[in-house]
Amino acid sequence: MMERKDLSGQFIKVSEPDPHVLLVELSRTPVNAFHGTYWAEFGRVFDNISKNPGVRAVVLASALPKLFSAGLDFGGLNAINSFDKDPGRKALQIRAFCMQFQDAIAATERCPVPVIVAVHGVAYGLAIDMVSACDVRYAAEDARFSIKEVDIGLAADIGTLARLPKIAGNQSLVHELAFTARDFTAPEALQMGLISKVVPGSRDQVIAAALQTAKVIAQKSPIAILGTKRVLQHARDHTVQSNLEYVATWNGAMLQSSDTFSALKGAMEKKSATFPNLGKPPTAKL
Question: For the whole model, what pTM was predicted?
Answer without folding.
Answer: 0.93
